[in-house]
């Protein structure tokens, strides 16, 4: 039987070496190692053999089977490699062909304006400050000289979570927080962010919008510093020939307070439909920081003064690009957004 095992092994290895396909290799493996293979027949014959013959022939049969399995595995790897090489030669890639073009997105117009404003103020030595959108009453109102029961709350009381927590109605709480953290030192910041108010949801108003506020607190700060800062801002945003004017107004956290107009950038101040034939467009509110706010934040108003201003980003963006409906900013309409692809 040992001679027969040698013949089976030699014959199987020869056929394995000559196999040309995976199908042919699998058939050879099944024939020589399957349940009806020559090896299986030899193992059945061991039933009548002596114990010594069973040990010898059993070990020899396992060696033959292992040799055939090893040869099959090596041949399979060689055939697979040959298939892959043939496929690579057949499927050559022309690296000179142009690739697929992918649509490139753009920054939202509101974010474009915010980033431009930040660049302008960073160039003037300001820092960017941020704060929570869910704010407590003391920072949103009381530290800004708007105590409980103050009439100014009527325009801003909006989305309350409980009696002391609400969605911030302005980014001014960031100013109060920054002043407290500064511990009586000079402050020069701008703070952009979302704010939330009960408001008419029409073409020019929204219950959620974006504000951009600025604050400077230091010794010897005057209204002339405020006017020079805002003049430069309007020239950067709307053209070098722009002029501004102050109109008396009222804000609880500034005194004196002003509304700021810019000369119409469409007609140059001559009068047109955009400026309602006045030559001026109202763009933001500003004023000198109220002494009560300075005291509440740990500053001596006899030593420190400051100015603050705030503008709605949507309003600036609408004026700059001639957008007639604030709701366009929030509808994710690609036809609207693609108009600003080349701006940044």
Describe this structure in words.
41% of the residues lie in helices and 20% in strands. It has eleven helices and ten strands. α1 runs parallel beside α4, α2 runs antiparallel to α4 and α5 packs across α10 (313-321). The radius of gyration is 41 Å and the shape is elongated. The termini are far apart. The model has no long low-confidence stretch (mean pLDDT 87).
Give a quick precis of the structure.
By secondary structure, this protein is an alpha+beta fold. The chain folds into two domains: 2-89; 111-340, Bira Bifunctional Protein, Domain 2 (BirA Bifunctional Protein, domain 2, 2-Layer Sandwich), CATH 3.30.930.
What shape does the CA trace take?
elongated
> Would you tell me the overall average pLDDT?
87
What's the story with the biggest beta sheet?
7 strands, mixed
> Which radius of gyration do the C-alpha atoms yield?
41 Å
CATH class of the largest domain: Alpha Beta
Number of helical segments with 4 or more residues:
11
Instruction: Enter the CATH topology name of the largest domain.
Output: BirA Bifunctional Protein, domain 2
Structural class: alpha+beta
- Total strand segments: 10
* CATH 4th-level superfamily of the largest domain: Bira Bifunctional Protein, Domain 2
Strand content: 15-25%
For the biggest β-sheet, the strand order reads 1-5-6-10-9-8-7
Overall tally of structural domains: 2
- How far apart the termini lie comes to 86 Å
